[in-house]
């Protein structure tokens, strides 16, 4: 019951923020192009790509980068995902040092990786470790869309596999946020085999009675959706996330017609029986905690 | 087992052409030539049948086995009917059903891989193409019977791998196996499908390259001009390969087979 009141309070709070926001938003637009300059020196604003409204970065952080007006879930980094999901300061990273060796000697790949590593401060497209969510300890893995579209090469596959293995050894639940364009082309067959490797590791973890919560976020496609991402005991998805095997463009070219509205979106998958629930970003943490409790973790 | 260097003079692009040749034998020909008493099993037991996957029970030199493979068909009419060998989720669910059945009756599983990929279509997505493939990968990894895969033509993407999580994987000399079709690869990386020839050389998709990288156990020799030029010679090679492989694998316990298969993929591309 107290949770109910807490939720109510949160709702009231967000409504208040929303009202306050609309006012400043109008004021800002009236004043011309000054939306960029905040009063407290924090100058950035965030524009919702769907409804085109602009909000101060601080408010959007609080909203977990969900548009307060239209509910659009803006893409977030792996760090933001971590911050929005786990108890603060509970994260212990694993396997941060793993990096690719350019296994098929693909021209330009090594340099490309180097430059993305410099931009992102990460060795490859997955962030893995242990953390607590409302006090429940778990193994968490987050794919990072800013690192080559979260594509799965040998490093991402290895890190997911190790996360599953660690969860199995330590008898911890496994939580994976997928967000990926699919298998990483530049590693050829080495990428394809990650599908088998990660799926086998999840299967083994599952046979030992481990709980795997898979959260599909925008976008989860190809080799990632056709391997570990769809093997969760509990399948969650963020509203509007594009989830599928083949990309919409490829399907349109193949069948020679436009795809219907909402095709391959999270809600479509729920309707067709492939996810348990479409959960908005602000409810994910409480839902994950609830699922963990229900499984006696 | 034939383990040797393939003819270097044939480039990857030419091999892709040979692998896709319309005259190349298909799953039905391999079943005719190598097995007896084939009994075709149909349907995913959920409500659909996908003819892009052919599967059933047969004898291999008297030993009952389960055979599964992608089916492209021989002529245009068959191509259309079998969707050019591009399975829908129901095809993968049928394949998995037959594999679980093989495990129940202790039969070895032999799969023949030859597909442009899983079908990118409306219904395929509605029926859960991703989930069907993922399920195959996960379940195959833990089967307690011998699993042998032979890539006979083109093995593209997760649609090929979905029936390829095997204890031993062999490739015909001119077969290719890759993450995606060279056209798809070129179109993703360079937004230009016409650069597929460049892609072929970069992708490391030939039997020779994959053998060297440790992805496959061996290469089965093809006659001059490919298996399509003299199928009998090719069939004999496959027959010998399967006999040797089965002899080895049938001596192992179920747990050992499961463990070795797991470790093989675990240590692949580490
Ligand atoms: Zn909006």
Structure characterization notes:
The complex is a heterodimer of chains A (297) and B (270). Chain A has 297 residues and is of the alpha/beta class. Chain A has ten helices and ten strands. Chain A folds into two domains: 2-62, no CATH class; 78-294, Alpha-Beta Complex (2-enoyl-CoA Hydratase, Chain A, domain 1). Chain A has helices at 2-30, 57-62, 78-85, 109-120, 154-170, 188-207, 222-225, 248-255, 266-271, 281-294; strands at 45-47, 54-56, 92-94, 126-133, 136-143, 174-180, 212-221, 234-237, 243-244, 277-278. In chain A, helix 5 (154-170) packs parallel to helix 6. Chain A is globular, with a radius of gyration of 20 Å. The relative contact order of chain A is 0.10. By secondary structure, chain B is an alpha/beta fold. Chain B has one domain: 2-enoyl-CoA Hydratase, Chain A, domain 1 (Alpha-Beta Complex), CATH 3.90.226.10. In chain B, strands 1, 2, 3, 4, 5, 6, 7 and 8 form an eight-stranded mixed beta sheet that branches. In chain B, helix 7 links the parallel strand 5 and strand 6 (168-172). In chain B, helix 4 (89-104) runs parallel beside helix 6 (129-140). The mean pLDDT of chain B is 95. Bound molecules: zinc ion. The site of zinc ion has 8 residues of chain A, from loops.
List keywords for this structure.
A: 297 residues, alpha/beta, 2-enoyl-CoA Hydratase, Chain A, domain 1, eight-stranded mixed sheet, 10 strands, B: 270 residues, 12 helices, binds zinc ion
Q: Quote the average pLDDT of chain A.
A: 89
Largest sheet of chain A: 8 strands, mixed
Quote the CATH topology of chain B. 2-enoyl-CoA Hydratase, Chain A, domain 1
* Level-2 CATH architecture of the largest domain in chain A: Alpha-Beta Complex
Q: Which outline of chain A best applies?
A: globular
The CATH homologous superfamily name of chain B equals 2-enoyl-CoA Hydratase, Chain A, domain 1
């Amino acid at each position: 019951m107290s949770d109910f009141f807490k939720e109510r309070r949160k709702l009231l709070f967000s409504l208040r923020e929303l009202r306050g926001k609309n006012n400043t938003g109008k004021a800002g637009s009236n004043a011309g192009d000054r939306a960029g300059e905040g009063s407290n020196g924090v100058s950035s604003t965030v524009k919702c790509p769907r409804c085109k409204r602009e909000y101060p970065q601080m408010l959007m952080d609080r909203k977990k980068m969900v548009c307060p007006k239209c509910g659009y879930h803006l893409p977030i980094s792996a760090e933001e995902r971590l911050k929005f999901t786990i108890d603060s300061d509970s994260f212990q990273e694993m396997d941060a040092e793993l990096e690719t060796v350019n296994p098929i000697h693909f021209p330009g790949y090594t340099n490309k990786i180097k430059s993305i590593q410099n931009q992102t401060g990460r060795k490859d497209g997955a962030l893995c470790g242990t953390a607590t969510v409302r006090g429940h300890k778990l193994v968490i893995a987050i794919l990072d869309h800013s690192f080559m579209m979260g594509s799965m090469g040998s490093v991402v596959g290895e890190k997911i596999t190790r996360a599953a293995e660690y969860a199995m050894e330590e008898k911890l639940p496994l939580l994976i946020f997928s967000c990926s364009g699919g298998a990483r082309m530049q590693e050829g067959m080495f990428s394809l085999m990650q599908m088998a490797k990660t799926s086998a590791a999840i299967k083994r973890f599952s046979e030992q009675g481990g709980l795997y919560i898979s959260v599909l976020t925008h976008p989860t496609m190809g080799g990632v959706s056709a391997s570990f991402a769809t093997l969760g005991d509990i399948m969650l998805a963020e509203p509007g996330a594009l989830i599928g095997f083949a990309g919409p463009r490829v399907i349109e070219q193949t069948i020679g017609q436009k795809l219907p509205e909402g095709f391959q979106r999270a809600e479509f998958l729920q309707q067709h029986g492939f996810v348990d629930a479409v959960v908005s970003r602000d409810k994910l943490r409480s839902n994950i905690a609830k699922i963990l409790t229900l499984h006696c973790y | 087992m034939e383990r040797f260097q393939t003819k270097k003079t044939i480039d990857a692009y030419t091999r892709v052409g040979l692998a896709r040749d319309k005259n190349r034998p298909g799953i039905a020909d391999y079943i005719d030539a190598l097995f007896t008493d084939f009994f075709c099993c149909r349907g995913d037991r959920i409500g659909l049948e996908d003819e892009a996957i052919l599967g059933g029970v047969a004898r291999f030199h008297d030993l009952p086995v389960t055979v599964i493979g992608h089916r492209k068909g021989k002529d245009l009419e068959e191509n259309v009917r079998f969707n050019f060998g591009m399975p829908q989720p129901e095809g993968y669910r049928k394949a998995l059903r037959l594999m679980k059945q093989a495990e129940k009756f202790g039969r070895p599983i032999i799969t023949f891989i030859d597909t442009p990929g899983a079908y990118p279509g409306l219904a395929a997505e509605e029926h859960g193409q991703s989930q069907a493939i993922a399920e195959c990968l996960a379940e195959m990894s833990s089967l307690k019977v011998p699993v042998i895969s032979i890539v006979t033509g083109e093995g593209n993407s997760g649609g090929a791998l979905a029936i390829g999580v095997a204890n031993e994987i062999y490739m015909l000399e001119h077969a290719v196996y890759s993450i995606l079709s060279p056209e798809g690869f070129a179109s993703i990386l360079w937004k230009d499908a016409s650069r597929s020839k460049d892609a072929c050389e970069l992708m490391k998709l030939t039997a020779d390259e994959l053998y060297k990288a440790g992805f496959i156990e061996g290469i089965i020799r093809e006659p001059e001009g490919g298996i399509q030029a003299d199928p009998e010679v090719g069939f004999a090679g496959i027959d010998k390969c399967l006999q040797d492989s089965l002899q080895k694998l049938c001596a192992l316990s179920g747990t050992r087979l499961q463990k070795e298969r797991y470790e093989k993929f675990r240590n692949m591309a580490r």
